[in-house]
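User: I'm writing a short report section on ligand binding and want a predicted complex to refer to. Could you take this sequence and adenosine-5'-triphosphate and write out the structure as tokens? A short remark afterwards would be nice.
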Amino acid sequence: MSLLTLTNIHKTFEKGTVNENHVLRGLDLDINQGDFISVIGGNGAGKSTLLNSIAGVVDIDQGDILLEGESLRKEPVAKRAKKISRVFQDPRMGTATNLTIEENMAIAYFRGEKRSLFKKAVTDKDRAVFKTALSELGLGLEDRLKTDAAFLSGGQRQALTLAMATLLRPKLLLLDEHTAALDPKTSDMVMALTKKIVEEQRLTTLMITHNMEHAIAYGNRLVMLYHGKIVVDVRGEEKTSLTVAQLMDLFHKNSGEVLADDALVLG
Ligand SMILES: Nc1ncnc2c1ncn2[C@@H]1O[C@H](COP(=O)(O)OP(=O)(O)OP(=O)(O)O)[C@@H](O)[C@H]1O
Ligand SMILES: [Mg+2]
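Assistant: Sure. The structure tokens for the complex follow:
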């Protein structure tokens, strides 16, 4: 069953200027309920713009985005954020470092409620929910609720961000290179956590990565973006049997610098 359908998405930045950049060029993608999709593609291919378009941060010029059959186009970012969670590359983006772990979890938990967070006290019952979610991470954060997020390492912070993003089961989880700023061991740890949470909650997930091994190892489907379109879409057996060498080969065939429509090639 389709959860999210993108049809003929176009996005041009800085239209009408010398910097005009037609980034998404008629992109189509149909995402099934429960799909865990790795998204790969060269720098500037439009991967983040795709996720930003779904989240509503980028306003698309043409096409439509349907979540469970309903158009998101007119929905503001805040309304979409109740259904769509995001984790970014920079560990500082997902957590408020001047707040404690408990306060960060409370922000995620009360998100979308009209009453402001700071008027609403965290009850023991809420705290128990936070502790359960944090203990899933296996990092002992459940015993450090009063610690400022500023004292956490990058990996711990990304793990906390994942817990926050999935505390209220989102319809869609968007991960934009969420392990790229971490060392290889920590990156693998956060990927293992991602897999565990996605499987346990059966989350529909789009994960951008430049790590070809991760792109093959995680998820049931892999798409490659080039020049603002999906140029490769593999799943199941076809995906799991891919080797890094084959994927690199596909990548080189579908990459190269993306030039704007009217870019001048000098020299
Ligand atoms: N808000 C914006 N305003 C103007 N140009 C933008 C904006 N966001 C993205 N772009 C441009 O759109 C193009 C695609 O960017 P995007 O961030 O989607 O690429 P990406 O595939 O995520 O690349 P990377 O792998 O480097 O993260 C780039 O040329 C970028 O400079
Ligand atoms: Mg990007």
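A remark for your report: Residues 258-267 have pLDDT under 50 and may be disordered. Residues 47-48 surround magnesium ion (ligand 2) (CB under 6 Å).
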